[in-house]
Give the backbone structure.
Amino acid sequence: MAVTKRKIKNVIKMGDLLCASFNLEEAYGVIGQEMPRLFPAGACYRFDHARNLLDAAVSWGDGPLETVFARDDCFAVRRSRPHLVVGTDEGIPCPHISRRMQDRASICVPMNVHGVFMGLMHILFPYPLSASNRLEKEKLGADEQLALIATRQISLALRNIQLREELSNLSTIDALTGLINRGHLEEKLNRELKKAQREEKPLSIVFIDIDHLGQFNRMHGLEAGERVIQDLGHFLGEQIRETEIACRWGADEFALILPGSTLAATQRRAENLRELLKDHAAYDDHKQMRRVTLSIGVASLPDHGETAGDLLQSARSAVKRAKSEGRDRVRIAD
């Protein structure tokens, strides 16, 4: 029994929608919407490299399926090829398949693209199966073929989106700290400014400069100086909230955008960051930070300007004043 034209059209439609997706989350939304048109139940798992686990990005149908499991719990992943299970007659159910679903025909298909392991597609077929009936065998053959075609389409689309995001990050992310770079900050700041003005909400900027980094480099070497920059970048990235933005502005300069934060609240926050850094430096892993201090400037909308350029200039001027007054302090823009 061949795959029906209607289902092939559904696969093509899903492929078109995946190609139009801007990011992986949007693509997984398409998978969750379109795969039920092909199969009644299943899940698409993404591979979490950090934890070496498969995590369900999207599932549909009458599961329940395991949401997270070790990659070794799937025979398809272990063998790097599709693993078909037909009730008790063919194939051994993977450990990640729940016991009550083991009388269903199913297939696990690894999502590999050019040697890169993306994840796993697990599909449950719409019938209990003993594989003794000729018609059932034909249905199984058609469904298996459709599962392989759909999974290949999905794998290629997800890999293309992933590569596109990686290329985008190369142009917007600072390689040393993992924070966004200066060019991308200006774009984000303009967008946040428009939103704050439209909603009549405050917005503040914190500008940070590492004191005497040039002198530090001469005494301890450029590699030690890079470790200071990297450590400070990671520290700032951990301190900001989900709606806030941290940026490496220049060699020894950083900027934070704090939507919704008033001038007074931002000044307190900046003082707190300066003190927290000293606690951070107390750990042996960050001992190089004991040798540096920070000069910090704060500016807010609308007190110190209404454009990105004005606010950044005001905050940087406040940093210069902090340095002229002895460094290791926070100052508000004039």
Notes: The mean pLDDT is 87.
